[in-house]
Design a protein that fits this description.
One of its GO terms (cellular component) is membrane. GO terms for molecular function: 2 iron, 2 sulfur cluster binding; flavin adenine dinucleotide binding; metal ion binding; oxidoreductase activity. It is a multi-pass membrane protein. Keywords: 2Fe-2S, FAD, Flavoprotein, Iron, Iron-sulfur, Membrane, Metal-binding, Oxidoreductase, Transmembrane, Transmembrane helix. The chain is α/β, with parallel strands linked by helices. The strands form 4 sheets. A 5-stranded parallel β-sheet has the order 9-8-7-12-13, with helices on both faces. The chain is elongated. The N terminus is likely disordered.
Length: about 450
């Protein structure tokens, strides 16, 4: 087996293990429900209410694990994939919880022979800990609505993130409700142990990966801005120094969530624009929004808080000895870092940089000449047509890199450009296993 294939097998194994654990826990939850006489006690509506409640709780725990950014999973699967699964599972949580509320209310109303609205009042205000569950449900609905694409586009990240913190309160309130009235807790020691362990491990993963590890690393490395370089009127490169940076497990192609001391409440996902050398970290930022525009005027000496490194867009994904790097716009930053890493390894490299106002081209040209890589800069509008049709179409790519199918291809750029290039590569017959992309908008 080729050594470079081993990391990819690790990524596949991580995905399979995650799916297997979710499936196994679903089986356990169902088994505990059956052992608790879930199919024989009460009527069918109440039983469905209990079962959807258990599945909703399990899906909520899965969400916690996906958003915990556990290094083992994140480094193999990538934050973009984990975030997509987190978003998808979130809607399952919402629908399962709503189904739980509806079935339980209808079931109790049927058993008591009371009107549905009257039963709602009885459950919320006169049943132990149901008010907590009602608040938890309301919080989940708010989080779910704010995560809809239309709402998400209208919200600033800080506001959206603040709303999402309510999901942690919903987890705690829902768990307290489950502890006090859930039959899997009240009547089953095994069920109590299982759910306590499940919630405990999930919350511990969040606390360790999202809080303890970043605090430890920032205390150890004491990051500060050491230099600022202007690349263009709206692009700036920031060099960040600190202590013992050789102990930070960062690789070319990865990114951090950066916070700066005078705007610590804002977290920005910026990729490294140079290969980590153990002495400094470097980011290159274009003014695309309020946060990145503010960063254009940053000065040396500012304290930096960094969470990461994150991302699986690294050399560990490689399956071939030859590499093609394709960058679009500000997606050039991780590509530039990967070019440096592959150049130092003496690899066969080709680079295509697509952009209207390309930056870092002088650096990339210098590296390409040093390692004898083929470097193409494609400028002009996105609908530009050249000698062989569209500039990033199949014939043009084939003309620039005839041996494309024998290479691993790394693509980073705006979503539209990335999707179009992936389609072109598929049309040229490149296997999906040789095409590597990652979306760096962690909140999208």
């Amino acid at each position: 087996m080729r050594p470079e294939n081993l990391p990819r097998l690790g990524r596949v194994k991580a995905e399979r293990w995650l799916f297997a654990l979710v499936a196994l826990n679903a089986v356990w939850a169902t088994d505990l429900f059956v052992l608790g006489h879930g199919l024989t006690s009460g009527d069918l509506l109440t039983a469905l209410g209990r079962l959807t409640g258990l599945y909703g709780a399990l899906a909520l725990v899965v969400q916690l694990v996906l958003v915990a950014r556990v290094p083992f999973l994140e480094s193999r699967l990538g934050m973009d994939r984990l975030t997509a699964w987190h978003r998808w599972s979130g809607f399952w949580v919402l629908w399962l919880v709503i189904a739980h509320v509806v079935f339980i209310t209808l079931g109790y109303a049927h058993q008591d022979g009371s009107p549905v609205l009257a039963e709602v009042g009885t459950l919320v205000f006169h049943t132990e800990d149901v008010l907590k569950a009602t608040i938890a449900t309301a919080l989940l609905v708010v989080v779910g609505v704010s995560s809809a694409r239309r709402a998400r586009r209208r919200l600033r990240y800080e506001g959206w993130h603040l709303l999402h913190l309510g999901a942690y309160l919903a987890v705690i309130l829902g768990f307290l409700h489950q502890v006090s009235v859930g039959q899997d807790f009240v009547g089953s020691p095994i069920g109590r142990f299982y759910w306590w362990a499940l919630y405990g491990l999930a919350l511990a993963a969040v606390g360790l990966s999202r809080v303890a590890l970043p605090l430890l690393r920032n205390f150890r490395h004491r990051l500060r801005v050491v230099a600022v370089h202007r690349e263009s009127p709206d692009v700036v490169t920031v060099e960040i120094g600190g202590r013992d940076l050789h102990r930070l497990p960062a690789r070319a192609g990865q990114f951090f969530l950066w916070r700066f001391s005078n705007r610590w409440w804002e977290a920005h996902p910026y990729s490294l624009s140079a290969m980590p050398d153990g002495y400094s970290l470097r980011i290159t930022v274009k003014a695309l929004g309020d946060g990145s525009a503010w960063l254009q005027g940053i000065r040396p000496g500012v304290r930096v808080l960094a969470e990461g490194p994150y991302g699986a867009f690294t050399g560990e994904r490689r399956t071939r000895e030859r590499v093609l790097l394709i960058a679009g716009g500000v997606g050039v930053t991780p590509i530039r870092a990967l070019l440096e890493e592959f150049a130092l390894a003496g690899d066969d490299i080709a680079v295509i940089y697509r952009g209207r106002d390309p930056v870092l081209t002088e650096e990339m040209t210098r590296i390409a000449r040093w390692c004898r890589a083929r470097f193409y800069v494609v400028t002009g509008p996105s609908n530009a047509v050249g000698r062989y049709g569209p500039m990033m179409g199949p014939r043009h790519l084939k003309s620039m890199v005839p041996d494309l199918r024998r290479r691993d291809v790394y693509v980073c750029g705006p979503p539209g450009m990335t999707d179009a290039v992936r389609g072109t590569l598929a049309e040229l017959g490149l296997p999906d296993s040789q095409c590597h992309t990652e979306r760096f908008a962690f909140a999208a």
